[in-house]
Write a structure and sequence with these properties.
Blueprint lengths: L3 E7 L7 E7 L3 E6 L4 E5 L4 E4 L7 E5 L5 E5 L3 H7 L14 H19 L6 H12 L2 H15 L9 H15 L9 E5 L6 E4 L3 E5 H6 L3 H16 L2 H9 L2 H8 L3 H17 L4 H17 L6 H11 L8 H6 L4 H12 L14 H5 L5
Parallel strand pairs: 8-10
Antiparallel strand pairs: 1-2, 1-7, 2-3, 3-4, 5-6, 6-7, 9-10
Helix pairs in contact: 2-3, 2-9, 3-8, 4-10, 7-11, 7-12, 8-10, 9-10, 11-14, 12-14
Length: about 375
């Protein structure tokens, strides 16, 4: 079995992808970056964030808020890592679709069987297992149905200039990201200050939140945060954890009536539940890294949340975002500290017009 693989390395500080040779050793990875130094990643410090499904690139990360990233196309890298021993067995290579379907169904049924006895910790743990093996195509099917429930077509903002601006911001954010999900943002003509991430890359932003942003960088910060919820499968985990496993199996199997019932239930769940502190911290840190890689001002998200926190007592509509995305002064301070560690000079987002005019395009 080969122990040397070609890939690309990102340092977490810039958007530059550099070619690299990766050698699997008995205790970790030796990474020789083109035109740079040779790096050493101990096996225990590496986490796998992509590569479980056939056709996906393998993505390995190391570090905290501004993680280093290693991307490799050859799936046999994971087999080589797994051959190291017990420490390597937490890395998983592509599985057959039929196996994933079986594992998904069994995991859902198992969650029901043990739910009563293990309610406090078993269901959250099982939801993570189930969500990790749900194919992206299934997430997209459920996400489209959820987005249709959250944002009915007749209530959407259909201004082409606004949609073009939002799509351009998304394209800049995901330019260096894995192409596992196709991110689609829908603007809903509603005054509440809120946004939702649905499974499969579907994001709904309400007009009230759009109008509260003072700069395009603030909207980019919110979108980066929501995109990371998608990448980390947080909405999928929440839905699996709090909904009927029987409806899930029917929905992903293509049962139209089950899909409709499941989308109604999933929309209710995403509209009423709060993300955990862990999920929010993950989306904050990874979203900030995404902003840094795109050379967008990383202070956008913290400045947006800070002005919501300051308006919390005097503007009840601001609380809508906090209902599903708990925000505290501590969280804003953490985001500000992480943003201050980014050394690259941001490149402004060009919109061709004043931002106040852009946000008024919805509902004009």
């Amino acid at each position: 079995m080969s122990t040397v693989f070609a890939g690309h390395y990102l340092d977490g500080q810039t958007a530059v992808r550099r070619r690299a040779l990766v050698r699997v050793t008995a205790t970790g990875l030796e990474i020789q970056v083109e035109g740079g130094a040779t790096l050493w990643w101990p096996l225990g410090a590496i986490r796998q964030t992509q590569g479980v499904y056939a056709g996906e690139q393998i993505r390995l990360e190391r570090g905290g808020a501004t993680s280093e990233v290693l991307v490799v196309d050859d799936p046999t890298l994971l087999a080589a890592v797994r051959s190291i021993g017990v420490a390597g067995r937490r890395f998983h290579g592509p599985q057959r679709r039929s196996l994933r379907v079986l594992v998904t169904a069994l995991a859902a049924l198992a969650a029901i069987a043990v739910g009563g006895a293990l309610h406090l910790w078993g269901i959250p743990a099982a939801s993570g297992i189930v969500a990790s093996v749900v194919p992206v195509a299934w997430e997209d099917r459920i996400g489209r149905a959820v987005a249709a429930q959250l944002a009915a077509h007749e209530r959407r903002c259909l201004d082409t200039a606004l949609q073009t601006t939002v799509d351009a911001i998304v394209a800049r954010l995901v330019a260096r990201a894995p192409d596992t999900y196709r991110i689609r943002v829908t603007i809903l003509d509603h005054p509440a200050v809120n946004a939702f991430a649905a499974p499969g890359g579907h994001i709904v932003v309400l007009r009230g939140l759009l109008e509260r942003t003072r700069t395009p960088a603030e909207l980019a910060g919110v979108l980066a945060h929501e995109i990371q919820h998608v990448y980390h499968r947080h909405p999928t985990r929440l839905i699996v954890q709090h909904s009927s496993a029987g409806l899930l199996v029917g929905a992903v199997a293509g049962d139209v009536s089950a899909l409709m019932a499941y989308s109604l239930e999933a929309a209710r769940i995403l509209g009423t539940l709060r993300y955990s502190r862990q999920y929010e911290a993950e989306a904050d840190a990874a979203g900030l890294s995404m902003l840094a890689a795109a050379r967008i001002d990383p202070r956008g998200l913290s400045s947006f949340l800070a002005q919501l926190v300051s308006a919390e007592t005097g503007a009840p509509t601001a609380l809508g975002y906090f209902a599903s995305h708990p925000a505290t002064a501590e969280r804003v301070a953490t985001l500000g500290r992480l943003a201050s560690e980014v050394r690259d000079t941001p490149i402004p987002i060009a919109t061709g017009r004043d931002w106040k005019d852009v946000v008024r395009l919805c509902g004009a």
